[in-house]
């Protein structure tokens, strides 16, 4: 995404992006404007999503106070603040923070229309519905939910004026959405074609979608690692998922029973997203459904407080509190893991500094297919440290930029010399690595730079290299999936 923003003009960001990337048009233009004004450093790219995530927390508080009372609103804010993916994507240069913020603003304005029905509230919602898809693809489902609820509200309340206003707003939304799709649809079409297995096409894929909801909330063992390897069939993570589901079911019942408009407003975006997924129009992997996090937090809070209020016996109340604590523990563990996964520089900056300081003129450097993109970014961004800037200026790494393409792993760099070898993507297995390693020069020093490998893959490749030559130095980043590794060998 950073390379697209850096290499393309504002006008060219309206077209199909390179390297299988997609983002809403206004988000891309905002990122471009920020880089033009303040440079292309990591902090500049992360700034707008960070602000969006912080504002979302404030807006969520307003939404929770309009739907819930007293303790339930406080609990909802606590749960929302601990949603793992909301935290881990809070300062990542992707549009998911805007998905959450835009959904919350639409909820807040719709609730205001439902309570007041005045023209100014309807006008504000209409304008927000026009702006929303420019910042968030997922907002389409929220806008559709807002329109549906307001149409039902106008019909049941018998307000002809409100009905005409809502129909007019819905017509404007639909018209502008079709224009936007015609203008920017190639970007979303490319992503849709590349994610055929992330839609609901069978019972198994529906189960995966539920698993994605668990990952969003942070009650999946895949995100918090609770219960792994402990030999217990009913791990803390599994218990947290069961308790969270119970709270959500009870909360849904309570909201639909006492505030059916607010309850339906929160539930319909998920229903519409599921319909879009069943039609192969929208993927349901975790970050794509992050906009449902506010709904999950409010339903859990409503369900927890309802069960707590109905529990007459002291022991039952302790049980309900214990269930909520279990959910919270799983969430906190997921949030910690999510924060650990976010790196300041994806690990490439220290590797490039290491090379700039220790690479000799006759050394060969091998970049695997995944590491070249961050390498390209730091060569071009002007935001690296002095050692990298000097090495780039002195052409220690003789590379030129390659025009991108929509393919996920299309090249970003080309080198005219064998002293810098940039691998081509040949599948996710290790055969391509072995073929490349077999052609590395003998009796010379070779730096092998690897990115994004699982620990077992890294160990397998390192063992193969160790059998072929002598390891002289190494640099690693920590984590389950290493951001970057640099190994120096003499074969």
Descriptive overview:
The chain is an alpha/beta fold and 491 residues long. It folds into 2 domains: 2-341, no CATH class; 348-490. It contains 20 helices and 7 strands. The strands form 2 sheets. It has a 5-stranded mixed β-sheet, with helices on one face. The protein has a two-stranded antiparallel ribbon with strand order 2-3. A hairpin with an 8-residue loop joins strand 6 and strand 7. The longest helix has 35 residues, at 160-194. The protein is globular and about 85 Å long. The protein starts with a helix and ends with a strand. The model has no long low-confidence stretch (mean pLDDT 88).
Q: What labels describe this entry?
A:
7 strands, alpha/beta, five-stranded mixed beta sheet, 2 domains, 491 residues, single chain, 20 helices
What's a quick, concise take on this entry?
The protein is an alpha/beta fold and 491 residues long. The chain has 20 helices and seven strands. The chain has two domains: 2-341, no CATH class; 348-490.
What secondary-structure arrangement, pairings included, does this model have?
Layout: H1 2-7, H2 25-38, H3 42-67, H4 70-81, H5 84-88, H6 96-116, H7 119-135, H8 139-157, H9 160-194, H10 203-217, H11 221-224, H12 236-258, H13 260-278, H14 293-310, H15 314-341, H16 348-358, E1 364-367, H17 372-380, H18 386-393, E2 400-401, E3 413-414, E4 420-422, H19 431-438, E5 445-450, H20 455-468, E6 470-476, E7 485-490
């Amino acid at each position: 995404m950073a390379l697209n923003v850096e290499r393309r003009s504002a006008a060219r960001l309206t077209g199909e992006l390179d390297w299988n990337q997609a983002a809403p048009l206004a988000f891309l233009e905002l990122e471009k404007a920020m880089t033009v004004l303040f440079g292309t450093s990591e902090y500049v790219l992360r700034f707008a999503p960070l602000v969006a995530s912080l504002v979302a927390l404030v807006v969520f508080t307003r939404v929770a106070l309009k739907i819930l009372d007293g303790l339930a609103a406080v609990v909802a804010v606590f749960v929302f603040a601990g949603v793992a993916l909301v935290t881990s994507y809070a300062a990542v240069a992707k549009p998911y923070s805007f998905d959450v913020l835009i959904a919350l603003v639409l909820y807040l304005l719709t609730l205001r229309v439902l309570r007041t029905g005045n023209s100014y509230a309807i006008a504000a919602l209409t304008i927000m519905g026009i702006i929303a898809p420019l910042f968030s693809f997922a907002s389409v489902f929220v806008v559709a939910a807002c329109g549906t609820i307001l149409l039902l509200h106008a019909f049941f309340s018998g307000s002809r004026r409100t009905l005409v206003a809502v129909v007019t707003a819905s017509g404007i939304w639909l018209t502008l959405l079709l224009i936007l799709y015609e203008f920017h649809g190639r970007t979303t079409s490319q992503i849709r074609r590349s994610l055929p297995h992330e839609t609901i096409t069978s019972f198994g894929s529906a189960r995966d979608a539920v698993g994605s909801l668990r990952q969003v909330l942070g009650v999946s063992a895949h995100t918090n690692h609770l219960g792994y390897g402990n030999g217990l069939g009913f791990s803390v993570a599994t218990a947290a998922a069961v308790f969270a589901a119970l709270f959500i079911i009870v909360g849904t019942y309570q909201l639909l029973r006492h505030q059916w408009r607010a309850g339906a407003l929160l539930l319909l975006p998920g229903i519409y997203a599921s319909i879009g997924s069943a039609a192969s129009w929208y993927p349901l992997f975790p970050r794509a459904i992050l906009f449902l996090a506010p709904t999950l937090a409010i339903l859990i809070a409503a369900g927890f407080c309802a069960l707590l209020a109905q529990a007459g016996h002291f022991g039952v109340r302790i049980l309900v509190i214990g269930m909520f604590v279990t959910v919270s523990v799983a969430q906190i563990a997921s949030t910690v893991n999510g924060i650990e996964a976010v790196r300041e520089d994806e690990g490439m900056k220290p590797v490039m500094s290491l090379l700039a300081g220790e690479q000799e003129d006759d050394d060969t450097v091998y970049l695997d297919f995944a590491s070249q993109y961050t390498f390209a970014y730091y060569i071009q961004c002007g935001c690296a440290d002095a050692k990298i800037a000097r090495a780039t200026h002195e052409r220690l790494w003789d590379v030129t930029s390659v025009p991108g393409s929509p393919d996920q792993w299309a090249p970003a760099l080309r080198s005219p010399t064998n002293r810098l070898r940039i691998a081509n993507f040949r599948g996710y297995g290790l055969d391509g690595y072995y073929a490349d390693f077999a052609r590395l020069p003998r009796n010379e020093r070779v730096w092998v730079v690897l990115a994004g490998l699982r620990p077992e893959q890294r160990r397998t490749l390192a063992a193969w290299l160790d059998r072929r030559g002598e390891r002289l130095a190494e640099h690693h980043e920590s984590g389950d999936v290493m951001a970057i590794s640099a190994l120096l060998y003499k074969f």
